[in-house]
């Protein structure tokens, strides 16, 4: 078992404060302990924040050229350790190795490459008549990240924070911390100045709360559940720090009458089960014309037959386990609830045949679902799809928007038609006709799916303050 008990503070790997607890990291594919980490406390957070605060004055004044050179080093080192990163992600959260190698690990690299491109041309100043507007690094940033896309969610915060001249303290998920350790090693080797990047492991109620409430932290960037996001915002409120959040989702996938039904339904099923359904923007509610429901069910069944569940290292498998025993039990309970509420089309409770060890869930589809059912309203965060039928396009839009969430949406149909429906959705993102996620586009949601935007150019804005200097541009007499 690998011991990862130190924290990265002020440019060094240091032992946690006295009395720190610990926990084991479990490989969800086989339930074996693969690593042990320390769980920090308030003293560790104080030490890390102090290091970030001390490093801020100098790092915030570094030149664009210096930060571009730093990002170039990070990118080169990340590329050299990409296979290692993919293996860590697969082991800590169960992604199939093919997914880890082609999507999960490269997504983190992509955010550093994107940040580098944006930094090269980003306007940190703007003239407005006699006023000069400056965009300046916000300060010390607390970053809290989840386990489902571990390095992706870390990189989309760390990369723009570095590019804009901020310093930071990261608390990765204690469930999947190995990729965070590897990234910290990359940043150290790249020469990130002491105190600019710090890593403290711990749980949300202790380290997360201490970071969110700390008076020397200027902003919090959080990705996770809406429930936990509320706690971060509550802890941050007394210090009136900026809070950027990317939270839960229950995204609707509207398949219009003029869509290629076989293509759209198949794509929707596979997207829902991608990453074992453990994506906040997964299309978990499929809305289809009522008179074509039987046709849709058959297509969905056929698409599910293409899902091969099993050991992530087996290249013939395209869906691994869910991340933990806790997550497995939650999903099983919601599948049971669905079997009471709706019609089970495929899947159900229990593990797939031959997979008794590991947190494997059957790809599950329910039909004859209405939007008042628990399975249509709660974020299940597993491979569970709900199919809802609609009578009219207006009803489809109403159902899609009838949720406390508003992260993403999906529309399939003739392009102009799909565009028009997309404009009616109260979501931060919409995918038309199976379009892939765009790493340059703003990522974030409406309503209880969060506030602020990550990724691309928009991702820089959360890490910047705006200063207007009036009279700056008046010629002196």
Largest sheet: 7 strands, mixed
Calculate the terminal CA-CA distance, rounded to whole Å: 72 Å
Strand arrangement across the biggest beta sheet: 15-16-17-14-13-18-19
Q: What's the gyration radius in Å?
A: 23 Å
Task: Show the helix and strand layout.
Layout: E1 2-4, E2 7-9, E3 12-14, E4 21-27, E5 32-39, H1 42-59, H2 64-80, H3 82-93, H4 97-121, E6 125-128, E7 131-137, E8 140-144, H5 150-164, E9 167-171, H6 178-190, E10 197-199, H7 204-213, E11 219-223, H8 226-236, E12 242-246, E13 252-255, H9 261-273, E14 285-289, H10 293-304, H11 325-341, E15 343-346, E16 364-369, H12 374-377, E17 384-390, H13 393-401, E18 409-412, H14 415-422, E19 431-432, E20 450-451, H15 456-461, E21 464-469
Parallel strand pairs: 1-5, 8-9, 8-11, 9-10, 11-12, 13-14, 13-18, 14-17, 16-17, 18-19
Antiparallel strand pairs: 2-3, 4-5, 6-7, 7-21, 12-20, 15-16
